[in-house]
Amino acid sequence: MAWVLLAAAIVSEVLATTALKLSDGFAHKGWAVVVVIGYLTSFAMLGRALKLQMEIGVAYAVWSGVGTAAIAVIGALFLGEALSPAKVAGIVLIIAGVVLLNLAGSH
Asked: Where are the transmembrane segments (predicted)?
């Protein structure tokens, strides 16, 4: 159940961060509301996952790493942002770090 809550936290955070870009500095109030609700939901779900005895280092690494990688891909695919070889390498390193933390956390 903790992993399901963590996945919900990641989805909420990615939606909120995407809405943050679309809010144009909170000029668009509808997107600003999505930002606030998304981040509140994300932190609530992350907190509930931690309450179920998920290790904080692993949970935060997965939450931030997957969120960062997803936002980079969304930015490139839908928001016209560049996805350079260096950014791709960074995403690969983030994912590798998350995997390593998960493997280390299970022993």
From this structure: 26-46, 58-80, 86-104
Task: Tokens 């509140």: give the residue.
Answer: 40
- CA distances to 36, 60, 102, 104 from 99, rounded to whole Å, are 30, 12, 5, 9
pTM: 0.88
Angle at 84 between CA 89 and CA 14, to 5 degrees: 75
Nearest in space to 47 (alpha carbons), one of 14, 12, 2: 2
In whole angstroms, give the CA distance from residue 92 to residue 87: 9
Instruction: Give domain limits for the chain.
Output: 2-105
Quote the tokens at residue 103.
């493997």
